[in-house]
Amino acid sequence: MTTQTAALSHLKVLDLSRVLAGPWCTQMLADLGADVIKVERPGAGDDTRQWGPPFLQDADGHDTSQASYFTACNRNKRAITLDMAQPEGQALIIKMAARSDILVENFKVGGLKQYGLDYQSLKAVNPRLIYCSVTGFGQDGPYAERAGYDLMIQAMSGLMSITGAADSEPGGGPMRMGVALVDILTGIYATSAILAAIEVRHQTGEGQQIDMALLDVGMAVLANQAAGYLNTGLVPQRQGNTHPSLAPYQTVATADGAMLLAIGNDGQFARFCQAAGQAQWAQDPRFASNSLRVKNRELLLARMLPVTRSRSTAAWIALLQDKAVPCGPINDLAQAFADPQVVARNLVVKQPLAHTGQAHPAIDSIVNRGTVKTVASPLRLTATPPVLHRPPPGLGQHTDEVLAELGLDAQAIEALRQRGVV
């Protein structure tokens, strides 16, 4: 599969976003073959280039100045540096927008209008442009002017209120998720909205603005917890690794640690009981249905734990996995990436780091290590699968290349560089 035959190879994307939500969206588009040009500040770049430790390492195993964070959401892109505060920089972005299908930005509401780079201004230049704005709180409402960050949204949306152990338990209290999941989910929602807007453009010939808000996404992904509250008025509470509507659906202790038991129906519970040598549990009137097991969760767990502690985690998985009883180990990342299924699915990808051709000492020193590793795209299209055609770029790595495509010669590009425009 080449970029020319990938699913989105016909699309050009102008990426004015930074950090995670916007770049996650544009990396998804790039993985599917779109030509994504990432615009960064001269000399500094995307904030995540400095978000370390951990940092990428040079050939001698020493930290460089390049944080590994950046590599999580910026592969398959071309990177240029451009100062949009300067009129010449604005003119170049407008010229690129005129040739683009999609623009993604995550500036504060109204932040790009002063540069003539807001949707209405660019729509006049390119009516077919799909302009995706990612903000904390959306383009309207009392909080529209506020900056928004993933952790703030996890707190405000209620996600933290249902994550973590109950207050009455050791270590209890609201807990953030281990990754910036609202940012990531916003990027995924944004990608879906962009693809929908492309389909609409096929019919109308016109683009549109997409208003993506972290808060909207944070509320949307409350899923069953939101449905329960909205339809009963009961506020869900934190309950650690147990499930509010299923039992036993949680971590349970084993002889050498713990495992995850995810029983979702009565048949699975009966098969678990039979395998555990406790077939009578499935007939017990207190445990005979899921609703009863949820009601009597603590009583059931008190009976289960002496049994689950009688075997190791590996022994339980070996016993249950061929009986269609969902269970699994609780891996750390090293164990997860070493898992045979993860290995078989080729979920770690390596890309050679090409030399920048310019003076970028930090990224050039990383080149000596040869490769950078990222997690493969989970999008498995049989006819047009994701492509790997560029590693995460060095700061400004493709500036000359992209500007040349706009018609600038080497002398003009050097003059812009001398003036600090690029």
Features:
422 residues, alpha/beta, Rossmann fold, formyl-coa transferase, domain 3, 2 domains, three-stranded antiparallel β-sheet, 16 helices, 35% helix, elongated
- Over the alpha carbons, how many angstroms does the gyration radius reach? 25 Å
| Number of beta-strand segments | 13
Can you identify the CATH superfamily of the largest domain? Answer: Crotonobetainyl-coa:carnitine coa-transferase, domain 1
Strand content: 15-25%
What's the CATH topology name of the largest domain?
A: Rossmann fold
Derived from helix and strand composition plus strand pairing, the structural class reads alpha/beta
Mean pLDDT: 93
What is the count of helical runs?
16
How can the largest sheet be summarized? 6 strands, parallel
Name of the top-level CATH class of the largest domain: Alpha Beta
Shape: elongated
Measured distance between first and last alpha carbons: 33 Å
Explain what the structure shows.
It is a single chain. This protein is an alpha/beta fold and 422 residues long. The chain folds into two domains: 3-220 and 345-418, 3-Layer(aba) Sandwich (Rossmann fold), CATH 3.40.50; 249-335, formyl-coa transferase, domain 3, CATH 3.30.1540.10. Helices cover 35% and strands 15% of the residues. It contains 16 helices and 13 strands. The protein has helices spanning 21-31, 87-98, 119-125, 150-156, 181-204, 214-220, 223-232, 266-275, 290-295, 297-308, 313-320, 333-338, 340-344, 361-367, 399-405, 410-418; strands spanning 12-16, 35-40, 55-57, 63-67, 77-81, 102-105, 130-135, 209-213, 249-254, 257-262, 327-329, 348-352, 371-375. A six-stranded parallel beta sheet has the order 5-2-1-6-7-8, sandwiched between helices. A three-stranded antiparallel beta sheet has the order 9-10-11, covered by helices on one side. Strands 3-4 form a two-stranded antiparallel ribbon. Strand 9 and strand 10 (257-262) form a beta hairpin. It is elongated, with a radius of gyration of 25 Å.
